[in-house]
């Protein structure tokens, strides 16, 4: 019975068929069909998302919340529907817990800027992990500089896991905040965030989970994770660039002061004193990216129709197959072999610099990322200046993994002359 | 297998100088030196120079980077040895024009020799900085700015 269900699920999700939903994938690059394996940088967008955003501008465009005219009301309705949609998608308690941002970077900066100075003082600690993206490091360093707080780092092991023991050892009564990636953008490591949250809460710390690399690959339920903050970037989950969201648990949001000031976030402004709006409006100064929010809602609709559990089940064997194929490339070394991985494979090849690999693969129509992936501490950990990174999305197939493997073998041959 | 752009970029001479870089390693002090860094791809080079009056009597480099940046540095050290500082400056301008495809004229009389092999990067805007890194770094070493060069 269970087997039949799995088969049914897998046949329902056919990456080859889904590929047709993404217009940008239907092109040749340097004479070869495009194989897009840079999804951790940004995903391609399905037609449904592109047309949802375009339709918004064609028919509904008006500023939100302030107008009484028809278009403004329609626009407001679409914007708030988008908020409710993303709240529901990641299991937030109510739409009021979702703040729209430009993306994960802005979401983290919002927490560091609004929540941070109130709750952190001299010698307080912010616990990060060694595999964080720069956007989950630098805002906390800026906050530490302002407040006198310290950054503490939980190390990764050789495989690229964050061992829970060494994580726990760094939690103490001075730890005010833990900021951790749900999924590593450089290694693909899935962190045991639910357990990390449990341990951090036991120590009295709040937890921010950077979900940029997770939401497009895994079912996410912020209430099951029990985290205090959760961040996401639309463009890494098949939605437009420039839109993302921050989940803030309601009791924390209520006590959180504003971040940026401006229109939209106020109740009444007098030169003597300004009254701020309730969350989430309090954190959304200025005219929001309504078209982006509408596109994000369309991406959520697209993903929900497929089912995140089914998607994750369909992606896993393709990633396993790619790992298996990459092992056949002479001189290839994986960088990071985490116990649990989604989406991302980092590697180096003896004698060929990742940057050259990137150019050579582009000539075969294969788009990968090369460099430090905005995770320089991870590169330092492995003693490499850069890696090549192939990152998968819902439209990638085993044939894409084959093409990647062949292109890598050909690239190596160029350097074997 | 390779198409023509790619064959132009990864010529035998580039592959060779990447695999066996010439003048690789530090020169003993006293020396002029500078560090160069390309944050985009993590290329890091150090360039070392010895001057005999106005003439570059010896030049070397070390560090790590992609084939284009290593080959460019290696070819550069060969080209600079024995030249005067003024000649090195003129060569720098000539190379900059060659690599970026800029229209700026001047120095056409300079024979680039093997350095012509680097012209292929012009077709790859994201790779031009790899090829120019060593050249920027040597300019910094000659001016003794003691400020690391970065391409960003």
Describe this structure in words.
The complex is a heterodimer of chains A (417) and B (152). Chain A is of the alpha/beta class. Chain A has 2 domains: 2-33 and 307-415, Aspartate Aminotransferase, domain 1 (Alpha-Beta Complex), CATH 3.90.1150.10; 49-305, Type I PLP-dependent aspartate aminotransferase-like (Major domain) (Aspartate Aminotransferase, domain 2). Helices cover 41% and strands 16% of the residues of chain A. Chain A is built from 15 helices and 17 strands. In chain A, strand 7, helix 8 (193-202) and strand 8 (206-210) form a beta-alpha-beta unit. Chain B is an alpha+beta fold and 152 residues long. Chain B has a 4-stranded mixed sheet with strand order 3-2-1-4, with helices on one face. The chains are: A alpha/beta (417), B alpha+beta (152). At the A-B interface, helix 13 and helix 15 of A face helix 1 and helix 2 of B.
- Please, what is the average pLDDT of chain A? 95
Which strand order does the major sheet of chain B show?
3-2-1-4
Count of alpha and pi helical runs of chain B: 5
CATH superfamily of the largest domain in chain A: Type I PLP-dependent aspartate aminotransferase-like (Major domain)
Query: Regions of chain B with pLDDT < 50 over 5+ consecutive residues?
Result: none
Q: What is the residue-mean pLDDT of chain B, rounded to a whole number? A: 89
Number of strands of chain A: 17
The assigned structural class of chain A equals alpha/beta
Distance between the termini of chain A: 55 Å
Helix content of chain A: 40-55%
User: So what's the overall shape of chain B?
Assistant: globular
Q: What is the third-level CATH name, the topology of chain B?
A: Sufe protein. Chain: A
Examine the secondary-structure arrangement and name the CATH architecture of the largest domain in chain A: 3-Layer(aba) Sandwich
Question: What is the rounded Rg of chain B?
Answer: 14 Å
Share of residues in helices of chain B: 25-40%
Q: Which pair of chains has the greatest number of interface residues, and how are they split between the two chains? A: A-B, 22 and 24 residues
């Amino acid at each position: 019975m269970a087997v039949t269900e799995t088969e049914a699920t897998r046949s329902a999700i056919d990456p080859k068929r889904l590929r047709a939903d993404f217009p940008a994938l239907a092109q040749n690059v340097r004479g070869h069909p495009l194989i897009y394996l840079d999804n951790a940088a940004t995903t391609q967008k399905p037609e449904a998302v592109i047309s949802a955003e375009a339709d918004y501008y064609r028919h509904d465009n008006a500023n939100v919340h302030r107008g009484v005219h028809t278009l403004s009301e329609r626009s407001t309705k679409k914007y708030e529907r988008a908020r409710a949609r993303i709240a529901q998608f990641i299991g937030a308690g109510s739409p009021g817990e979702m703040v729209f941002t430009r993306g994960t970077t802005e979401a983290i900066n919002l927490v560091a800027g609004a929540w941070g100075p109130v709750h952190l003082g001299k010698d307080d600690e912010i616990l990060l992990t060694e595999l964080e993206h720069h956007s989950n490091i630098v805002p906390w360093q800026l906050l530490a500089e302002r407040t006198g707080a310290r950054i503490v780092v939980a190390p990764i092991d050789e495989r690229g896991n964050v061992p829970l023991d060494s994580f726990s050892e760094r939690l103490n009564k001075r730890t005010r905040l833990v900021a951790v990636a749900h999924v590593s953008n450089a290694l693909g490591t899935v962190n045991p965030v639910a357990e990390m949250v449990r341990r951090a809460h036991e120590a009295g710390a709040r937890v921010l989970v950077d979900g940029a690399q997770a939401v497009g690959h895994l079912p996410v339920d912020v209430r099951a994770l029990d985290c205090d903050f959760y961040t996401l970037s639309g463009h890494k989950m098949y939605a437009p660039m420039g839109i993302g969201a921050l989940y803030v648990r309601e009791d924390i949001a209520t006590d959180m002061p504003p971040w940026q000031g401006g229109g939209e976030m106020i109740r009444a402004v007098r030169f003597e004193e300004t009254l701020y709006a309730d969350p989430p409006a309090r954190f959304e100064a200025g005219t929001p990216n309504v078209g982006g929010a509408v596109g994000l809602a369309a991406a959520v609709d697209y993903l929900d129709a497929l089912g995140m559990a089914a998607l994750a089940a369909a992606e896993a064997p393709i990633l396993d197959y790619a790992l298996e194929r990459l092992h056949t490339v002479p001189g290839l070394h994986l960088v990071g072999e985490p116990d649990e991985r989604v989406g991302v494979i980092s590697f180096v090849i003896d004698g060929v610099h990742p940057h050259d690999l990137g150019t050579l693969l582009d000539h075969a129509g294969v788009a990968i990322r090369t460099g430090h992936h905005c995770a320089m501490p991870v590169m330092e950990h492995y003693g490499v200046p850069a890696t090549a990174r192939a990152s998968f999305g819902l439209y990638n197939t085993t044939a894409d993994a084959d093409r990647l493997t062949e292109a890598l073998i050909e690239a190596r041959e160029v350097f074997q002359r | 297998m390779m198409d023509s752009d790619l064959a132009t970029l990864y010529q035998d001479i580039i592959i060779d100088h990447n695999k066996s870089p010439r003048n690789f390693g530090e020169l003993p002090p006293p020396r002029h030196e500078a560090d160069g860094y390309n944050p985009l791809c993590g290329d890091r080079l150090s360039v070392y120079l010895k001057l005999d009056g106005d003439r570059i009597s010896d030049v070397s480099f070390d560090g790590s980077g992609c084939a284009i940046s290593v080959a460019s540095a290696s070819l550069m050290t060969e080209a600079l040895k024995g030249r005067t500082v003024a000649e090195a400056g003129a060569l720098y301008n000539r190379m900059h024009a060659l690599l970026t495809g800029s229209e700026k004229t001047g120095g056409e009389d300079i024979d680039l020799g093997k350095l012509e092999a680097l012209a292929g990067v012009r077709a790859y805007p994201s790779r031009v900085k790899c090829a120019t890194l060593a050249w920027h770094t040597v300019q910094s070493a000659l001016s003794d700015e003691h400020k690391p060069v970065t391409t960003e």
